[in-house]
Amino acid sequence: MYKRYITIGRMRTNKVITFIVNPAAGHGRSLAAIPIIRRLMDESGRPYTMLETATPGHAGELAQQAAAHGAEIVVSVGGDGTVQELASGLVNTGAALAVIPCGSGNDFVHSLHPRMKKVSGFEARITQYVTLLLNNAPTAIDAVRMNDQYFFNIGSIGIDAEIVVYATRLKRDFRGAAYLLSTLRNIFTYKPKKAKLIVDGQEIEKRLSLCAVSNGSFYGGGFKISPSADMSDGKITLCVIDALNRVMFCLLFPFVVFRAHTKLKQVSYINCTHVAMEYTGVLPVNLDGNIYKLKAPLNFEIIPGGLKVIK
């Protein structure tokens, strides 16, 4: 069961805002945000509730319940994994998603607000996002359905998903260095995967280092893998990186940091509405930072305007 932190603020309107907090996100940052949110919401006079997730997947259940009970805005207080779970429960409900980023990567909000002015200080950042959700009107962005699941930023297979898998094992001992250590390991151990892609009916067979199904631009803690991706254009931006040798693997990540990877001959982009992936065995699949180990086929389909958000 979830814990209800706050039942309701001062009643000036019946348009309730529901905050869903993942207490495990951001090494305590989500919990530290609560008193700041409470103060700002009480000052605003807007009615609100605040709920806490108890288990993985719980955010989606709470979001569906909030939408069914008339919440106008449902707010994710956590990281990218929390956003994916929570937003999946809001697709086609009419309730809008807002995000107060408290995770380690926060790539969804980077993709959603690419030109948002950065402010320094934890309280200032929380205030910035609460002010945004109180003052901005909902707008629609696309969602992507992968088999029976949704994601909203980037889904992928390849070396990036392998990096996340190994980094998860290292986080307890190495915390912030886990992703760097995992990247260094995978540069020397990753073997490109043979896969068949069916893109809007056209078949492509390749040995892949990485294949990113992009709705947004940023992932991996700020890597802009698909610079031209637009969350509201009704299109998937497919980024395909062919098999690379060890030298090119070493160069790939600096190239991505400086956004020069788009000029590499091994990197191609396709705008489409449907992608099917076929491969042998079980592979880790990244959906907005959550990892799933899945067998093929994977079917990706754009859902134009499937999610209302506060931008």
If you had to describe this structure to a student in words, what would you say it looks like?
This protein is an alpha+beta fold and 311 residues long. The chain has eight helices and 18 strands. The protein has helices at residues 29-44, 58-68, 80-88, 107-112, 122-135, 159-174, 178-189, 246-257, and strands at residues 3-6, 17-21, 48-52, 73-78, 96-101, 138-146, 149-151, 154-158, 193-199, 202-214, 218-219, 223-224, 236-242, 267-272, 274-279, 282-287, 290-295, 298-310. It has a 16-stranded mixed beta sheet that branches. A two-stranded antiparallel ribbon has the order 11-12. Strand 9 and strand 10 (202-214) form a beta hairpin. The radius of gyration is 19 Å and the shape is globular. The two termini are 31 Å apart.
CATH topology of the largest domain: Tumour Suppressor Smad4
Mean pLDDT, all residues: 91
How is the biggest beta sheet arranged?
16 strands, mixed
| Radius of gyration based on Cα positions | 19 Å
The percent range for helix content is 25-40%
Task: Look at the structure and give the CATH class of the largest domain.
Answer: Mainly Beta
Beta fraction of the residues? 35-45%
Number of domains: 2
Number of strands: 18
CATH architecture of the largest domain: Sandwich
CA-to-CA gap between the ends?
31 Å
* Class from helix and strand fractions: alpha+beta
Low-confidence runs (pLDDT<50, min 5 residues)? 1-14
| Strand/helix succession | EEHEHEHEHHEEEHHEEEEEHEEEEE
Task: Indicate the overall shape.
Answer: globular
Helix count, DSSP H or I runs of 4 or more residues: 8
